[in-house]
């Protein structure tokens, strides 16, 4: 109908009417595109809301998992204590502090000085967004920045872990005369029952051992710093998600 009317106006050389017809068509197309864009934007915002809720669920699951792990696994629960005990061992053996009496916990700290506790901070929703190329779906800049910081800290930890594992030094294996880890029958299931022996007096005179122990401690502390940065990024992301979703814990 519009085309027939348009052709009639052209035939009649009614240029004003022709211009008006063209204007009507242009306005109609513009309005149609605007409506289409509005519907597409609404669909994206609805999809964003779903991803926000899923991401928040992932974060809370990770936090809950960490809290449960911290209470059920001895090595995780006592990680900070072992780090402090290892620092005391180095101070005593290096002659910097003679007031500390070294004991079983210090020996255990030496034995596990080559290990690195890696928390399970994987966010499945974030991985899905990256693999599908939809990371930019979020409109909140704070969430986008905190997600980027979390990704950077995670990638840094993985690269660092690959390097540390390639240069790992097991003290008990290299210095069996100074450190012995004797496991009694059935004790392998319960690490708190492990019997370990450390000859602290002989350690003082072994420069190679002291150097390797100090190196293990330095690596452990460097790795722990990366874990702290990742944890801070996760907490920051959690806070921004709470604000965006209107959630109060």
Word description of this protein:
The longest helix is centred in the N-terminal third of the chain and has 58 residues, at 15-72. The protein is mostly helical. It is 71% helix and 3% strand. Strands 1-2 form a two-stranded antiparallel sheet. It is built from 10 helices and 2 strands; from the N terminus they run H-H-H-H-H-H-H-H-E-E-H-H. The mean pLDDT is 81. The chain has helices at residues 2-11, 15-72, 74-77, 79-93, 104-111, 124-131, 141-166, 171-174, 200-204, 207-245; strands at 179-182, 195-198. The radius of gyration is 32 Å and the shape is rod-shaped. It starts with a helix and ends with a helix.
Fold topology:
Layout: H1 2-11, H2 15-72, H3 74-77, H4 79-93, H5 104-111, H6 124-131, H7 141-166, H8 171-174, E1 179-182, E2 195-198, H9 200-204, H10 207-245
Antiparallel strand pairs: 1-2
Total number of beta strands: 2
Number of helices: 10
Uncertain segments? none
Helical residues, percent:
over 70%
Order of helices and strands: HHHHHHHHEEHH
Main pleated sheet: 2 strands, antiparallel
SS class: mainly alpha
Question: How much strand?
Answer: under 5%
The outline comes out as: rod-shaped
| Computed Rg | 32 Å
Question: Which whole number gives the mean pLDDT?
Answer: 81
Q: Report strand order across the widest sheet.
A: 1-2
Separation of the first and last Cα atoms: 61 Å
Notable traits:
mainly alpha, two-stranded antiparallel sheet, 249 residues, rod-shaped
Summarize the structure.
With 249 residues, the protein is mainly alpha-helical. The protein has 10 helices and 2 strands; from the N terminus they run ααααααααββαα.
